[in-house]
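Ligand: glutathione. Inputs:
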Amino acid sequence: MHKLKLDYFDFNGGRGEVIRLIFAIGNIPFEDNRIPVSDWPSVRDDAPLRSLPVLHIDGEAVTQSNSINRFAGRLAKLYPEDPVQALRCDEVMDAVEDVLTDIVATFGMDDEAEKKAAREKLADGEITLFLTFLQELLEQRDSEYFVENRLTIADLRVFVWTRSLRSGVLDYIPGDIVEKVAPEIADHCDRVAAHPGIVAWSEAH
Ligand SMILES: N[C@@H](CCC(=O)N[C@@H](CS)C(=O)NCC(=O)O)C(=O)O
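Predicted complex:
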Protein backbone atom coordinates (compact mmCIF):
# COMPACT_ATOMS: atom_id res chain seq x y z
CA MET A 1 0.00 0.00 0.00
CA HIS A 2 1.33 3.43 -0.93
CA LYS A 3 1.80 6.13 1.68
CA LEU A 4 -0.65 8.91 0.75
CA LYS A 5 -0.72 12.52 1.97
CA LEU A 6 -3.24 15.00 0.61
CA ASP A 7 -2.55 18.74 0.89
CA TYR A 8 -5.68 20.87 0.64
CA PHE A 9 -7.28 23.86 2.27
CA ASP A 10 -8.85 23.54 5.69
CA PHE A 11 -12.48 23.55 4.65
CA ASN A 12 -15.01 20.88 3.75
CA GLY A 13 -15.50 21.68 0.07
CA GLY A 14 -13.72 22.43 -3.17
CA ARG A 15 -11.56 20.25 -5.38
CA GLY A 16 -9.76 18.53 -2.51
CA GLU A 17 -12.92 17.50 -0.66
CA VAL A 18 -13.86 15.15 -3.51
CA ILE A 19 -10.56 13.31 -3.05
CA ARG A 20 -11.08 13.09 0.72
CA LEU A 21 -14.54 11.59 0.21
CA ILE A 22 -13.26 9.02 -2.30
CA PHE A 23 -10.55 7.87 0.12
CA ALA A 24 -13.01 7.85 3.02
CA ILE A 25 -15.68 5.82 1.22
CA GLY A 26 -13.04 3.39 -0.07
CA ASN A 27 -11.45 3.03 3.38
CA ILE A 28 -8.12 4.07 1.87
CA PRO A 29 -5.81 5.38 4.62
CA PHE A 30 -4.36 8.84 3.90
CA GLU A 31 -2.95 11.79 5.76
CA ASP A 32 -5.46 14.62 5.52
CA ASN A 33 -3.10 17.59 5.61
CA ARG A 34 -5.37 20.64 5.98
CA ILE A 35 -3.69 23.95 5.27
CA PRO A 36 -5.29 27.04 6.84
CA VAL A 37 -6.09 29.59 4.12
CA SER A 38 -4.16 32.19 6.17
CA ASP A 39 -0.99 30.04 5.84
CA TRP A 40 -1.34 29.68 2.06
CA PRO A 41 0.82 32.70 1.02
CA SER A 42 3.76 31.34 3.03
CA VAL A 43 3.55 27.77 1.65
CA ARG A 44 2.25 28.51 -1.88
CA ASP A 45 5.71 28.31 -3.45
CA ASP A 46 6.12 24.76 -2.12
CA ALA A 47 3.25 23.57 -4.38
CA PRO A 48 4.50 22.46 -7.82
CA LEU A 49 1.89 24.54 -9.70
CA ARG A 50 1.25 27.02 -6.84
CA SER A 51 -2.18 25.50 -6.32
CA LEU A 52 -3.94 22.73 -4.36
CA PRO A 53 -4.81 19.87 -4.14
CA VAL A 54 -1.46 18.11 -4.17
CA LEU A 55 -1.28 14.38 -3.45
CA HIS A 56 2.03 12.98 -2.20
CA ILE A 57 2.43 9.31 -3.16
CA ASP A 58 5.34 7.80 -1.24
CA GLY A 59 6.69 11.33 -0.98
CA GLU A 60 6.29 12.26 -4.66
CA ALA A 61 3.95 15.17 -5.39
CA VAL A 62 1.14 14.88 -7.98
CA THR A 63 -1.17 17.74 -9.06
CA GLN A 64 -4.54 18.05 -10.87
CA SER A 65 -7.70 17.18 -9.01
CA ASN A 66 -9.44 15.10 -11.67
CA SER A 67 -6.31 13.01 -12.26
CA ILE A 68 -6.06 12.44 -8.51
CA ASN A 69 -9.80 11.65 -8.43
CA ARG A 70 -9.30 8.91 -11.01
CA PHE A 71 -6.31 7.46 -9.12
CA ALA A 72 -8.22 7.51 -5.83
CA GLY A 73 -11.32 6.17 -7.59
CA ARG A 74 -9.38 3.18 -8.92
CA LEU A 75 -8.09 2.40 -5.43
CA ALA A 76 -11.57 2.79 -3.96
CA LYS A 77 -13.33 0.89 -6.78
CA LEU A 78 -15.39 3.98 -7.52
CA TYR A 79 -14.13 4.41 -11.10
CA PRO A 80 -15.37 2.25 -14.00
CA GLU A 81 -13.06 -0.27 -15.64
CA ASP A 82 -15.03 -0.19 -18.90
CA PRO A 83 -13.52 2.52 -21.19
CA VAL A 84 -16.88 3.95 -22.29
CA GLN A 85 -18.20 4.16 -18.74
CA ALA A 86 -14.89 5.70 -17.65
CA LEU A 87 -15.27 8.31 -20.42
CA ARG A 88 -18.77 9.14 -19.20
CA CYS A 89 -17.39 9.53 -15.71
CA ASP A 90 -14.62 11.83 -16.95
CA GLU A 91 -17.09 13.93 -18.96
CA VAL A 92 -19.11 14.71 -15.85
CA MET A 93 -16.03 15.53 -13.78
CA ASP A 94 -14.55 17.80 -16.45
CA ALA A 95 -17.87 19.59 -16.88
CA VAL A 96 -17.85 20.42 -13.16
CA GLU A 97 -14.23 21.56 -13.46
CA ASP A 98 -15.20 23.98 -16.28
CA VAL A 99 -18.05 25.64 -14.43
CA LEU A 100 -16.15 25.71 -11.14
CA THR A 101 -13.22 27.47 -12.80
CA ASP A 102 -15.55 30.24 -13.98
CA ILE A 103 -17.19 30.58 -10.55
CA VAL A 104 -13.81 30.71 -8.80
CA ALA A 105 -12.73 33.50 -11.18
CA THR A 106 -15.28 35.76 -9.45
CA PHE A 107 -13.72 35.22 -5.99
CA GLY A 108 -10.97 37.74 -6.62
CA MET A 109 -13.28 40.55 -7.78
CA ASP A 110 -12.94 43.44 -5.35
CA ASP A 111 -15.52 45.62 -7.10
CA GLU A 112 -18.86 44.44 -5.62
CA ALA A 113 -20.91 45.62 -8.61
CA GLU A 114 -18.61 43.75 -10.99
CA LYS A 115 -18.84 40.59 -8.86
CA LYS A 116 -22.66 40.85 -8.70
CA ALA A 117 -22.94 41.23 -12.47
CA ALA A 118 -20.51 38.36 -13.14
CA ARG A 119 -22.26 35.97 -10.75
CA GLU A 120 -25.77 36.83 -11.95
CA LYS A 121 -24.58 36.20 -15.51
CA LEU A 122 -23.14 32.84 -14.45
CA ALA A 123 -26.32 31.88 -12.58
CA ASP A 124 -28.54 32.62 -15.59
CA GLY A 125 -26.05 31.30 -18.11
CA GLU A 126 -23.39 28.70 -17.47
CA ILE A 127 -24.58 27.34 -14.11
CA THR A 128 -28.11 26.87 -15.48
CA LEU A 129 -26.73 25.26 -18.64
CA PHE A 130 -24.49 22.83 -16.75
CA LEU A 131 -27.13 21.86 -14.17
CA THR A 132 -29.62 21.22 -16.97
CA PHE A 133 -27.03 19.16 -18.85
CA LEU A 134 -26.33 17.02 -15.77
CA GLN A 135 -30.04 16.48 -15.14
CA GLU A 136 -30.52 15.39 -18.75
CA LEU A 137 -27.74 12.81 -18.35
CA LEU A 138 -29.56 11.23 -15.40
CA GLU A 139 -32.83 11.26 -17.36
CA GLN A 140 -31.26 9.74 -20.49
CA ARG A 141 -29.71 6.98 -18.38
CA ASP A 142 -32.88 6.56 -16.31
CA SER A 143 -30.60 6.27 -13.30
CA GLU A 144 -30.05 7.77 -9.87
CA TYR A 145 -26.31 7.94 -10.60
CA PHE A 146 -24.30 9.22 -13.57
CA VAL A 147 -22.49 6.03 -14.54
CA GLU A 148 -22.99 2.28 -14.15
CA ASN A 149 -26.10 2.84 -12.03
CA ARG A 150 -23.93 3.08 -8.91
CA LEU A 151 -21.98 5.66 -6.94
CA THR A 152 -18.78 6.70 -8.74
CA ILE A 153 -16.35 9.57 -8.50
CA ALA A 154 -18.54 11.49 -10.99
CA ASP A 155 -21.33 11.58 -8.39
CA LEU A 156 -18.93 12.77 -5.72
CA ARG A 157 -17.58 15.57 -7.93
CA VAL A 158 -21.13 16.79 -8.71
CA PHE A 159 -22.19 16.37 -5.08
CA VAL A 160 -19.44 18.57 -3.64
CA TRP A 161 -20.29 21.30 -6.18
CA THR A 162 -24.07 21.20 -5.75
CA ARG A 163 -23.79 21.01 -1.95
CA SER A 164 -21.76 24.20 -2.09
CA LEU A 165 -24.27 25.91 -4.40
CA ARG A 166 -27.16 24.88 -2.14
CA SER A 167 -25.41 26.18 0.98
CA GLY A 168 -26.06 29.70 -0.35
CA VAL A 169 -22.50 30.68 0.50
CA LEU A 170 -21.98 32.46 -2.83
CA ASP A 171 -23.43 35.97 -2.85
CA TYR A 172 -25.63 36.71 -5.89
CA ILE A 173 -26.06 33.03 -6.77
CA PRO A 174 -29.45 32.00 -5.36
CA GLY A 175 -29.18 29.16 -2.82
CA ASP A 176 -32.19 27.47 -4.41
CA ILE A 177 -30.79 27.51 -7.96
CA VAL A 178 -30.27 23.74 -8.01
CA GLU A 179 -33.84 22.97 -6.88
CA LYS A 180 -35.30 25.48 -9.35
CA VAL A 181 -33.22 24.62 -12.42
CA ALA A 182 -32.60 20.91 -11.94
CA PRO A 183 -34.69 19.33 -9.16
CA GLU A 184 -33.37 15.87 -10.02
CA ILE A 185 -29.85 17.11 -9.36
CA ALA A 186 -31.01 18.41 -5.97
CA ASP A 187 -32.41 14.91 -5.28
CA HIS A 188 -29.09 13.44 -6.44
CA CYS A 189 -27.27 15.71 -3.96
CA ASP A 190 -29.51 14.50 -1.11
CA ARG A 191 -29.05 10.88 -2.20
CA VAL A 192 -25.24 11.11 -2.20
CA ALA A 193 -25.26 13.00 1.11
CA ALA A 194 -27.13 10.05 2.65
CA HIS A 195 -24.42 7.55 1.67
CA PRO A 196 -23.14 5.99 4.93
CA GLY A 197 -19.52 6.82 4.08
CA ILE A 198 -20.37 10.48 3.57
CA VAL A 199 -22.56 10.66 6.66
CA ALA A 200 -19.69 9.21 8.74
CA TRP A 201 -17.13 11.58 7.19
CA SER A 202 -19.37 14.63 7.67
CA GLU A 203 -20.00 13.73 11.31
CA ALA A 204 -16.26 13.41 11.91
CA HIS A 205 -15.46 16.74 10.22
N1 LIG B 1 -6.49 22.41 -12.41
C1 LIG B 1 -6.18 22.41 -11.02
C2 LIG B 1 -6.69 23.70 -10.40
C3 LIG B 1 -6.18 23.87 -8.98
C4 LIG B 1 -6.67 25.14 -8.33
O1 LIG B 1 -6.93 26.17 -8.98
N2 LIG B 1 -6.81 25.10 -7.00
C5 LIG B 1 -7.26 26.22 -6.22
C6 LIG B 1 -8.09 25.72 -5.04
S1 LIG B 1 -9.41 24.65 -5.45
C7 LIG B 1 -6.06 26.95 -5.62
O2 LIG B 1 -5.09 26.32 -5.25
N3 LIG B 1 -6.18 28.27 -5.44
C8 LIG B 1 -5.20 29.06 -4.74
C9 LIG B 1 -4.31 29.86 -5.64
O3 LIG B 1 -4.45 29.76 -6.87
O4 LIG B 1 -3.50 30.62 -5.10
C10 LIG B 1 -6.80 21.17 -10.35
O5 LIG B 1 -7.82 20.68 -10.87
O6 LIG B 1 -6.27 20.68 -9.35
